[in-house]
Amino acid sequence: MSEDVKKGLLGIVVDETEVSKVMPEINSLTYRGYAAQDLCARCNFEEVAYLILNGDLPNKKQLKKFEKQEKNERTLSKNLISILKQMPKKAHPMDVARTAVSVMGLEDKQTSDNSQKANLNKTMRILAKMPTALALFYRLRNGKKMISPKKKLSFAENFFYMCFGKVPNKDIVKAFDVSLILYAEHSFNVSTFTARTITSSLSDIHGAITGAIASLKGPLHGGANEEVMQMMKKIKKPERALKWINKALDNKQVIMGFGHRVYKNGDSRVPTMREYFKKVSKIKKDKTFEKIYDIVEKVMIERKNIHPNVDYPTGPTYHLMGFDTDFFTPIFVLSRITGWSAHIMEQHAANKLIRPLAKYKGSQHRKVLSLNYR
Ligand SMILES: CC(C)(COP(=O)(O)OP(=O)(O)OC[C@H]1O[C@@H](n2cnc3c(N)ncnc32)[C@H](O)[C@@H]1OP(=O)(O)O)[C@@H](O)C(=O)NCCC(=O)NCCS
After folding, report:
1. What does the pLDDT look like over 304-331, one tens digit per residue?
2. Residues contacting 361, CB < 8 A, separation 6+
3. Whether 260 is catalytic
4. Whose CA is nearest to atom 9 of ligand 1?
């Protein structure tokens, strides 16, 4: 590969952003200047969603208005419910999520209005309706009836309620809320860049989020939290972990939930999520995955000097909460809608068509022979 080709855009700065930054001086991911772990300690997901979308933390009045708007938008149209009912039960819930946003785009009166105001309204509708759509699919494929959203419940509580018919203990809800905060935004990752690229042709937010979901599905990005759980299920028992990870590394296997394009000395979101994984393991009285977690992590650092990323602790945490493994990345979607939307609005506000170049290495000019001569 010639040196002037920057494959994977490695190290290339393509635009400016005010949404988030990994600040080396505090070794942390920050949203609008606030450290993600401080936000986990002092705020709920709704406050962080407001921050990411509006640029600042809300006061009480602003939060109340924001929460009210989200709660009022949770109901799905009859059309979307009927489409979800027709979806194959074996479909991957990420494909269901992608299709659901696309259908929401067909129904939304403001789809082609790319103004900031319309984009904020559309974001609220997508953010509020996506948990209802996913929970409905979760219930349908398990042969259960739909549970309608409840306005008195928070964003996190309501998702548990619509999936399982009850809200779990407050520490479990907090662990879920923390995972949403940590997943909400991460600058120019592949799905966000996809959303910005789609937006750069002046396309709409539903299209950009549809593309972003497709991008997030891949195992090198959001799909990693599912793969982590598949790995842990394969390992099954802590006493098998050491042999398993050493063999996998001997076979040059990529270990999901480890490594990161930006963090090379550890993902700053991991200690917070690890703490909540520990709490959930204790509540559920199941330390199996924690033990496997520690062994695999130790070997990865010792043999490869590669640290876990946030998908490593979220995978087993969601499993212990009772979610099916293929719902882990869709849960990531519920949260990242905020980050994607903030970037989509930023792109619209100062747009430049994204159109890189490629170094051509195909055939030189050739004459087209008519069919009889080929
Ligand atoms: C995230 C990821 C794609 C970053 O990739 P990247 O910045 O392009 O880094 P590279 O893939 O070039 O990795 C550099 C080296 O570390 C190795 N490496 C990186 N992540 C690894 C992992 N999870 N397991 C084993 N080896 C890994 C690569 O094999 C490569 O080794 P080499 O130089 O001998 O070829 C990569 O770490 C990965 O595939 N991780 C697993 C998937 C995952 O957890 N994704 C979620 C990210 S939040």
Report:
1. 999 999 999 999 999 999 999 999 999 9
2. none
3. yes
4. 261
